[in-house]
Amino acid sequence: MNKLIVVTGGTRGIGRAVIETFARQGFDVATCARQQPALDQLKRDVEQAHGVTVYTQPADLADRAQVKSFSAFINALQRPVDVLVNNAGFFVPGQIIAEPDGVLESMINANLYSAYNMTRGLIGNMQQHASGHIFNLCSIASFMAYPNGGSYAISKFALLGFSKCLREELKTTGIRVTAIMPGATRTESWDGTSLPDERFMKSEDVAEAIYSAYALSGRSVVEEIIIRPQLGDL
């Protein structure tokens, strides 16, 4: 049986690139996104291109109830979860002192609580098999403050802290934990920018770094990966 990777927010950007990368290596895929048509298209594309099975369920992971529903969907497959990539989240620029009320709460729900609750929902599966690899999509903003980072940076600082704590808790279980901290990556978040594509990293490069970390033997773990554009941060 193929191995199984779970990717949250998998229909575009880094999530889509991760799915394509692992599917090329023969992984079956389980993923979610908010829009069913995008999930249907992803399933058709990946299954046709790579001959693997793609399981999908629509879910907004900023909503805890929908995280629990998606976790239950995965567990009902009764398959070992070999890789979990907590990728769901979003970015809104702004200043802490000026951004609208509620921005922090929405960022924490989408960028932190989604990973926290998704991990808790699937960790029993991994513990049962004493294996698995959890990747949390953090950010350069997880360790470096910058103008207009606002609540996004707060949420990503917290996600890195979550990753560090999780790594300590799971050291002796056979489950690996890696925090991924990419710089500016050319995804839909940057649509409308006047900057050339060459100024950004490719989503595929982040995905390849994730696969390379996974491919190490179980005796080793890459705890953190920092990836920046060659010309530096934006």
UniProtKB/TrEMBL annotation:
<dbReference type="Pfam" id="PF00106">
    <property type="entry name" value="adh_short"/>
</dbReference>
<keyword id="KW-0560">Oxidoreductase</keyword>
<protein>
    <submittedName>
        <fullName>SDR family NAD(P)-dependent oxidoreductase</fullName>
    </submittedName>
</protein>
<comment type="similarity">
    <text>Belongs to the short-chain dehydrogenases/reductases (SDR) family.</text>
</comment>
<dbReference type="InterPro" id="IPR002347">
    <property type="entry name" value="SDR_fam"/>
</dbReference>
<dbReference type="InterPro" id="IPR020904">
    <property type="entry name" value="Sc_DH/Rdtase_CS"/>
</dbReference>
<dbReference type="InterPro" id="IPR036291">
    <property type="entry name" value="NAD(P)-bd_dom_sf"/>
</dbReference>
